Structure formats: C-alpha cells, structure tokens
Amino acid sequence: MKQQIGAAYYPEQNDPGQWAQDLDWMKMGGLNSVRVGEFAWKRFEPSDGKYDFAWLDTFAGMAGQRGIKLLLCSPPKYPNITFELLTAKSPEDLAASGVVPDLVATSNVYVKYMLDLGFGEDLQSMVKTSGTDLGKVEPEALNEPKKFGPKGEICGLPFSMNYGVMLYNKEIFDKLGISYPKDGMTWSQTLELARKATRTDGGVRYIGVSMGALKDSCGNIRCRRRRQAGKVDRHVRRI
Asked: Per-residue pLDDT for 218 more than 80?
C-alpha cells in the first residue's frame, strides 16, 4: 500500500480561485492526501435544512486530477453552536477596548504575547469540572503550554501537532562537495552547514537554507522585489 502523506486544508476558508495553485503546491511537495471538512458545517448547511456540497465536489475533483485523495472529517459535534469572530486592527486594540475573547486560536509562538495582553487564564479548574481526560493528549504537546505558566498553569489546550522536515538536494550537495545533513543536527550545526552551501558557482547563486513554506521557498516575493529594484536574479537555487 502506498504511504499516504498529507496535511489539513480548509477550502471553505480560501478563495476558490486559489485552490488550484494550493493543490499544485501540495503535489509539488509530495503530498498525496489532504484532510478537509472538520470546520465546514456552516458551508455544508448554510441554513436550517438546506445543504450545499457542490463546492466540496468541485474541490474534490480538482484534487483528484492531481492524484490527491481527500480524507473527509466529521463536522463539529455541536453544529448548533456558532461563534462570533472578533475583529480589530490589532490584538492590542482589542485588549484596549476591554473586550476579552472567550477563545483564542493561536500557535505556541504567540501564547506569551496573548497572555501579556490578558487573553488567558488557568484552565485547570475547567478541566476538572468538565471531566476532560488530559491523558488522551500527547504528553509533550500538553507540556508546551504549561511552560508559559510560572507555576505550571494550563493556559491553553493543544488541538493539533505539526511536524517539520528538512528537505535537501543531494545533487547540489555533491556538486558543491559538502556533506549531507544528519539526523539530530542542532540549529547551530544546520546554519553552519548552510553557510558552507551559500555561494555562487558557475553563474548560479546557491542559498544554503530557506525557512519559509513551499510558496516562499520559490522566491515569489523575493523575485518580485528584485524585479521592482531592476535587479532580477533568475539563477537562484535553494537547497
């Protein structure tokens, strides 16, 4: 059986005109499956008793044309509960207005930032009252939000985990005479290896590492800026 490599994608939250490009990037990245549907109840049933699956059929067809399978997830358990999306120019403006959101969806990168604005509290009493079994949560994922509480408070609950991978081009490493990356490398070792690979060789400029996503790795923004400056470098290779 072919190994399935995929990611979550939310077509209902993106412009349909963007679907094709996003799917192309998935295929280019080696993905052959995508998870959809878990947050789409309002699109499936825009009004009571009226259902709309046409948009998902369209997306599924576009994915199928690229050899990408769909994993359709169950919508929320309580579709009758809706949320009001709070908007403001910035989280600081929202905090200054005195409005504190009931829920904040963010990554661990911004947890301290949100806590400093007053958007958080210790959830341990709620966990106990609701009978939530934290034993079902990956221990390390649960330990991460605890790091932001000075006394080990639970200021947030994880709902997903992301795993990063390092991709590298063996042909380029061979050409430049540089050893391949190894498992267990530290960031310092990675950056040192990247410095060795950053050079211009045969009229081709090599950049040792790109930390962005696939779209950013292809330099769309960078090339646009170079073009505006009248300095388009068409020979950039990222390892």
From this structure: no
